[in-house]
Amino acid sequence: DAGITQSPRYKITETGRQVTLMCHQTWSHSYMFWYRQDLGHGLRLIYYSAAADITDKGEVPDGYVVSRSKTENFPLTLESATRSQTSVYFCASSVYRGETQYFGPGTRLLVL
Amino acid sequence: GENVEQHPSTLSVQEGDSAVIKCTYSDSASNYFPWYKQELGKRPQLIIDIRSNVGEKKDQRIAVTLNKTAKHFSLHITETQPEDSAVYFCAASITGSARQLTFGSGTQLTVLP
Is the CB of residue A43 less than 8 Å from the CB of residue B44? Predict the structure, then answer.
């Protein structure tokens, strides 16, 4: 479990501000994912990446930007935070396509 | 794309009883079915998985069964304990394909002492 970390663990920001959530994994997994989890909605995929410099949209990508310049890092940026983006954000990684995903500890984001 | 439906959304059982959570999937090509447990305030963690070439898999008090014909798979927890209380998610995917895991909506299991 220590192989995938997220920072910060808690974040409070204001509407309109830019926020970046960090995800770092030490397993050299090819695939990385960002999910948001809201009460009543389970896990919703925001973006994923198959390798460095390869990213693709998930179910709910609007308002988010990702990059992956290095295999081990997959930051998620909220360009102009909105209250509807208040959520718990989980990063995950997997070795192969469509295989087991391992989740980070999550970041709780509150947008005021 | 794949659609995974999970039932029930909430489940309460007495300690020591069994609990069963069922998921149905829509894409007959799906061949990998993991189950995750998420305790309150924690990350989802894999507890068991099954592949389409296997009908059942057990790990101590936990078992998963797969019915490919009916396109459903189930999580069985026997001799439930208070520490089994959590949200459980099922998921489905086609290994090696571009489509990633599709998650069910989750089941809140409460084990009553």
Answer: yes
pLDDT tens for each residue of B20-45: 999 999 999 999 999 999 999 999 99
* Strands (E) located in chain A: 4-7, 10-13, 19-25, 31-38, 42-51, 54-57, 64-66, 76-78, 87-94, 102-103, 107-111
Q: Which residues of A touch B46 (CB under 8 A)?
A: 100, 102
Contact criterion met (CB < 8 Å) for A48 and B43? no
Residues 6+ apart with CB under 8 A from A33: A45, A47, A48, A49, A58, A91, A92, A93, A94, A101, B100
Q: Residue B49 is nearest to which of A90, A96, A100, comparing CB atoms?
A: A100
CB contact under 8 Å between A99 and B97, yes or no, is no
